[in-house]
Prior knowledge:
The complex is a heterodimer of chains A (207) and B (588).
Chain A: E1 14-22, H1 25-36, E2 44-50, E3 57-64, H2 72-83, E4 86-89, E5 98-100, H3 103-118, E6 123-126, E7 136-138, H4 139-145, E8 150-153, E9 164-166, E10 174-176, E11 179-186, E12 192-194
Chain B: H1 37-43, H2 54-65, E1 104-112, H3 124-133, E2 138-144, H4 147-167, E3 172-180, E4 186-191, H5 197-208, H6 220-238, E5 245-249, H7 260-269, E6 274-280, H8 326-329, H9 334-339, E7 346-349, E8 359-362, H10 369-375, E9 382-388, E10 400-406, H11 411-420, E11 423-427, E12 431-440, E13 446-447, E14 452-456, E15 460-469, E16 484-491, E17 507-514, E18 521-530, E19 535-542, E20 576-579, E21 582-587
Parallel strand pairs in B: 1-2, 2-3, 5-6, 6-7, 14-21
Antiparallel strand pairs in B: 1-10, 3-4, 4-5, 8-9, 10-11, 11-20, 12-13, 12-15, 15-18, 16-17, 16-19, 19-20, 19-21
Amino acid sequence: MVLxxxxxxxxxxxxxxxxxxSRDTVEAEHLLHELLGSMAGSVVACTHVVAAGDRxxxxxxxxxxxxxxxxxxxxxxxWSVERSAGAxxxxxxxxxxxxxxxxxxxxxxxxxxxxxxxxxxGRLVRFPGAEHATGVLTxxxxxxxxxxxxxxxxxxxxxxxxxxxxxxxxIRPIRxxxxxxxxxxxxxxxxxxxxxxxxxxxxxxxx
Amino acid sequence: xxHSHDGHTHDHEHGAGHGHGHGHDHDHHHPNTExxxxxxxALDESIPDSDLSPTEVSRRTxxxxxxxxxGTAALAVSGVGAAAAAAAxxxxxxxxxxxxxxxxxxxxxxxxxxxxxxDGLYRVIDQxxxxxxxxxxxxxxxxxxxxxHARIGVELVNPQIKAARTELKNTLIFQGLEWNIPAAEHGTxxxxxxxREVEVLKQFENSYDGSVNNASSNSPANEQLALDGIQWLGxxxxxxxxxxxxxxxxxxxxxxxxxxxxxRNWRDANPRIAIGFxxxxxxxxxxxxxxxxxxxxxxxxxxxxxxNSFPGYxxxxxxxxxxxxWMTATVGGLWDSLLAEGKPWWVSANSDSHVNWNETSRRPxxxxxxxxxxxxxxxxxxxxxxVNPLATDFWPGFYSRTHVGAERRDYLSVMEGLRSGRMWVDxxxxxxxxxxxxxxxxxxxxxxxxxxxxxxxxxxVELVVRITTQTMPNWANFVPLLNRVDVIRGAVKGAVGDRxxxxxxxxxxxxxxxxxGKRGTFxxxxxxxxxxxxxxxxxxxxxxxxxxxxYLGAAIDPQGPxxxxxxxxxxxxxxxxxxxxxWVLPSK
Lengths: 207, 588
């Protein structure tokens, strides 16, 4: 069984980025889910911080092979028009990307597409191998089977090949310098757990 | 393990020989703040390839083949991010002053919620009576700012506070509020009691609260609103509407939204008003293990960055270290970078009590959010016939204490003690007394916490730490042991160029004393050498149970507080005290 997806460089892929002014990761991931559904095949889906302007928020990007059979691009076009979102759709080798939407949100979509193409930043929501990242795994298993390049613990704690990571069935690795990095933190029972856990205390709500 | 994760977004890593003249400088409100300088350069087709670094060329190649290069016009959206960054207030250059010796140490807590908070439970008297019973001399009631509180809560709580003042003659009870700082986290704002305390707080909240004014997100305009609020408070003191007012930032590193430049700007907006932040947050029961507690993150520091977070902060900053906020716990970190500027900025420790661990009361039936929104407060708690081990807070005074050296036991003296930095904090009653002084060797005159010793250049100076070990059991009913005392020293370099810096490269632990087995009152003396350049010293102590090399490495801090473990951070087995600094200033 081939566990790693064929290693297409981003330059050979189609990148579809949308800025719908999502306030937090819950909203951004909801948007991804709405656009992708249960789309099969090789998909990389990310959230991206759009920090400029008067309201920092999140955009999303989806990277798919150019021969992807479904009409994702068409769906995104229609959706973006309907919701007045910004969209950037790239084609390998094209002279320029296809941009649409209000200028403020086009900007975020374009920046997200650039980050996605370069692999310099972004937070991965769907990616090849994520489906194997459940339960308790060793760091080596996360690297070998789950599309993670590097497992890095907070506070300089050592991570060996056989270090156990309880994924809590929710991992959101980040991209850094072209690498997929899973940040982990110490937890009860001597295991490490992902730095980002599924349920975040809402900022500026209570407490 | 000296690792450092500098801001990935703010790195300016230009390749060697990178010499093109196109300005890649960008401040933190640059319209393209997401993309780093190399990417911006790669995207800018007006720069020929020959002027790019190898990294920039390879990025351009990648972007070109991905079909993305031709869209850069999208980045040049007019108006976006064009608003000027909130002007950094100038502030006084160096605000040194002599400190007065405290006559009395008064323990307190400036971060306490009641039924006037949408996530609170208790009456004012419930909090005040427990605070007094657990040994506190002063407390500040800080219900959350917000629409309901601004409309009615800020008034409704006042009769409860006045009644509690009458009931508890020896306890100083301030009225304040937990300010949603525009563009940032929460903070305590409180005033001296008086006929206009409610009027001033209400006007402040309506004008400057981030939630009331829909000003929470991180924008230059919202940052400016925060500064306006701090300055407005100062004006109310100048005009004698209130006798005094203070602001301290709460849980500053929790969500990464208090950027270093915002903290500096608050301080400089009015250093009489904006005096510090929580060195240790509340919610200290949050990390108690499964079976006896919530098994979450200590201090409820469990989040990951959001869109409003300062991108330069590392993941480590989102967690507590030995129960303390990363900004304070990191030797040579953000707090030290503020002190190294030679300006006052103090740390405190509080309960942030909303609902306390092992609580047996609850809100009565029918007291729900709608009832709160209508009436401005929840109904009084009732006995709940059960125990709640999942609540994450401790009563005021039960675990966290802020000890203030005051001239008298009164409201204004507590505020002046706070402002002067005559203040140390501890967890679990780790020490009974901590007095720190700096003096010229052989001289009687000494400066207490928060003070500045002006000494002739070249004269020898020494630090004296006078510890009184704990004789009383704490509220977990054991007598804590102070097993180690550390001295931290840092050079004073003056104002920083980059107001987002959060490192003080000339600060480190210079002495560790093993104090295990010592009992009663004892003095630790550290010669500080001849006074040549300005510096500060501060002191930290520990039960010695949990340590690891500091975030900036063992050479800076060999045995610092350890990163707290999610679900396994029993706060009673990891106790620390921290003092505020004393400065030494050589004169000619």
